[in-house]
Amino acid sequence: MSTRPEGKPQAVEQRKIVVVGDGASGKTCLLRTFHDKQFPPDDSYIPTVFDVSITDMTYDNRQIELALWDTAGQEDYDRLRIMSYPGAHIVLLCFSVDSIESLENAHEKWMPEIKHHAASAKVLLVALKTDLRTDMSAVEHMRRVYQRGLLSREEGEEMARYLRIPYAECAAKIEVGVGHVFETAVGLVESSREEVVEDKSCCVIL
Q1: In 34, 88, 115, 202, which residue has its Cα 20 to 30 A from 78's Cα atom?
Q2: Which SUPFAM superfamilies does the annotation name (predicted)?
């Protein structure tokens, strides 16, 4: 499915963003909150098989069209998901702060898959559901099941350093940090383009 906000001018530049990570980590809510400018009224979990939405954002005084590719994290959809990678400019590698497995899979499953199918894409590690860090029921669940607290910013940053990629985090449910995630993601592509332009301008033909 593809959706695009009505009444928007045609964007000059286009960027494809593919979002991956374990199932139930909050990927769809992140995308819907960014696209619709509000958290989904019905946030009951329904596994996404494949979904594409189109939206525009302003970056550095330029209008950029974003194609947002939502993917399924379940193993059953591995073959379908890899069809989303071709042409990706950016991959958001997501994990949830209430799931240790989702962070472990960032390097055990997702990063190898990204390197294989989208080697040229910029990758941003994104922590989701950070509002749960102050949710007592979530905290108690983690202590009961894992004998520890929720994943911290420091643990996310440590994983990002290990993977050698940038890091961001947000809480879509309370609409905190969502815009920052996409600004950071687009900035990764734009900064690399600027570096290429600078390199070319420094070339001297003898």
Answers
A1: 34
A2: P-loop containing nucleoside triphosphate hydrolases
Residues 33 and 27: their CA atoms lie apart, in Å, by 10
| Interatomic CA distance for residues 64 and 74, integer angstroms | 31
DSSP, collapsed to helix, strand or coil, labels residue 82 as helix
Q: What is the pTM of this model?
A: 0.89
Q: What is the pLDDT of residues 17-74, one digit of tens each?
A: 999 999 999 999 999 999 999 999 876 666 676 799 999 999 999 999 999 999 999 9
> How far, in Å, CA of 151 to CA of 171, rounded?
14
Calculate helix-pair angle for 178-201, 27-36, nearest 10 degrees: 80
pLDDT at 26: 96
Which residues are within 8 A (CB) of 67 and not within 5 positions of it... i.e. 6 or more apart?
Answer: 14, 15, 16, 17, 52, 53, 54
Q: Judge residue 1's burial from the number of C-beta atoms within 10 Å of its C-beta, 0-12 exposed, 13-18 middle, 19 or more buried.
A: exposed
CB of 152 closer than 8 Å to CB of 27: no
Contacts with 196 (C-beta within 8 Å, 6 or more apart), sequence order:
none
Fold of the domain spanning 13-201:
Rossmann fold (3.40.50)
Work out the pLDDT band at 206, boundaries 50, 70, 90.
Answer: very low
Structural domain spans, the chain: 13-201
